[in-house]
Amino acid sequence: MRSFPILYWPRETTGNSDYQLSRKVINTATGIMPDVITDDLDITGIFDKNEDAVIYYPVFCESTGWWGELLGGNGVVVDKIIVSPECQLMVIVPESGAKLHGDNQLLAAEIRPSSGFFKKMNSSIATVADMLATDAGTILALFSGKNQNRFINIIESTGNSYLGCIGQY
User: Fold this and answer.
1) Cα–Cα distance between 123 and 132 in angstroms, integer?
2) What is the C-alpha to C-alpha distance for residues 103 and 86, in angstroms, rounded to an integer?
3) Mean per-residue pLDDT for 149-164?
4) Which of 1, 166, 151, 148 is nearest to 77 (CA)?
5) pLDDT for residue 54
6) What is the total count of domains within the chain?
């Protein structure tokens, strides 16, 4: 099956070395120069129109909340490609076509930050990859971990909500 690469690029493209390098990396990996989307990204709409689409989503070192668009959608992170120290590309495919691999899972949860939670959660279970505050006083958090069942047990034992696994790489 031939993939249809799409590079989502929410920043200026002119003179941007990470943008040029991202296009080159995708072309090298797929043999096809990617289409580029610079406007709002509709992941569900893209996958509804083209089930062979692969979205390359840049995450910059100062990015927060990039994964929020995946919650409730049908996109799954299946790989990441390091472009530069400032930029990595998350490889997103339709959930129906995902063949998850690797050890690191991206696990999302809604947490109420407390000392008890952070005492129970440690690097042997999962590490925080990103966090977003909500109006309700909770935090939507993305964790990278190897043992999903153990992570879910810790989340639930501290009274927090597990939102799901958004991918594995």
Assistant:
1) 20
2) 23
3) 91
4) 166
5) 95
6) 2
What pLDDT, on the 0 to 100 scale, is given for residue 112? 87
Instruction: Please indicate, yes or no, whether residues 71 and 130 belong to a single structural domain of this protein.
Output: no
pLDDT score recorded for residue 123: 63
Query: Among residues 62, 97, 132, which one ends one of the domains?
Result: 97
> DSSP string of 2-14?
--EEEEE--S--T
Domain that residue 78 falls in: 4-97
* pLDDT of 167 higher than 70: yes
Please name the residue that has the structure tokens 């109006």.
135
145 sits in which H/E element:
strand 139-145
pLDDT at position 93 over 90: yes
Q: Are 109 and 155 in contact (CB under 8 A)?
A: yes
Tokens encoding 72: 């409730």
